[in-house]
Amino acid sequence: MPRFFIYILISILLSFNNIIITSLINIKHLCKRNIIYYRMERNTFHFLLFLIGPKLENPSFKGREQISVEKQLLIAIYVLATPDSYRSISERFGVARSTAWFSVERVLRVIFSIRNNFIRWPTHREAQTTWTNIQRLYTFPKVLGIVDGTHINIARPKKDSNSYINRKGRFSIQLQVIYKDDLSFIHVFAGMPGCVHDMRVFLYSGVQQYCTPEYFPEDSHLLGDAANSIQKNVMVPFNDNGHLTKKQKEFNHYLSSARITVERAIALLKGRWRYLLDKLPMTRTDLIPYYIVSCCVLHNICLLNYDTIEIPIVIPDTLHIMEPLAITNELKEEGNIKRNRLMEIITNDNF
């Protein structure tokens, strides 16, 4: 169905649910000239309002001033898109600082609650589409997704602050993402302290439990980097010890070429939601993962609505933590055998 008709249908549904945009003063913030502040098209805002508006209606503001659903959402989107002080935000929207903070927390918790509707593992057919597109563009076959991690800088935590210091000496929380060729996320995991190694983040994320034929049909796999461990469903480059064969170097080249979208996906996420780019002004580490994952949900919603941004992006260098599954020598050996087989296929002149 053409996108134009989809939004007409949504507008009709909005009117029946009494969630229509009643305040032109609020919605004017989303005009083209202000897209740099919100990094979201007006149509995407309408779509999001339709999704979560009913859950934001008639909130208990506990003595705070009552504000409309539209304004709550506008404040939250503005905070994520523009790292500004709550004093400045309260002046911009004409609300108290406590009301602005309460609105942001409330909106993001609602967005987090719908995460499984927008961040989900692909079906067999969707996986086929992904690996077909990646193979056409980068030669590498049967790639179901690409896994990588990034650090989200945070303020010094009140508790166990030393465990949040990463290798660059900054306080951070880690975000691991797996995404498809269209840059949409199929799995996200946030919450591990900055000092934790990438491989341990992978093990605690629960992805290891997905490494079965049910979730990786037709012997498909993820593409990881050197921080990941080789196994049947995770392909990583050969360790460059200075003695790689020509075929091993070619394999690494094709794998790296396919992973080049890593920078694009994470850059798009942080470039749109600048709240993640600088430093989260929060010390409660129990709340930070909600904010990070909510940004990932919004990332997918924007892509679903063909909402792209053309703003130059410059990036400096599931909440539940699963019990890790060990990657046994047997799993590693299976991965090595498969990697060697793929190397022969990829580097074959007739491929």
UniProtKB/TrEMBL annotation:
One of its GO terms (molecular function) is nuclease activity. The keyword Transmembrane helix applies. GO terms for cellular component: nucleus. Residues 147-300 form the DDE Tnp4 domain. Coiled coil: none annotated. The keyword Ribonucleoprotein does not apply. Its cofactor is a divalent metal cation. The chain crosses the membrane at residues 6-27. Its main location: nucleus. It comes from the Eukaryota. It is found in: Nucleus. Keywords: Hydrolase, Membrane, Metal-binding, Nuclease, Nucleus, Transmembrane, Transmembrane helix. PANTHER family: GH03217P-RELATED (PTHR22930:SF85), PTHR22930. Belongs to the HARBI1 family. This is Putative nuclease HARBI1. The lineage of its organism: Eukaryota, Metazoa, Ecdysozoa, Arthropoda, Hexapoda.
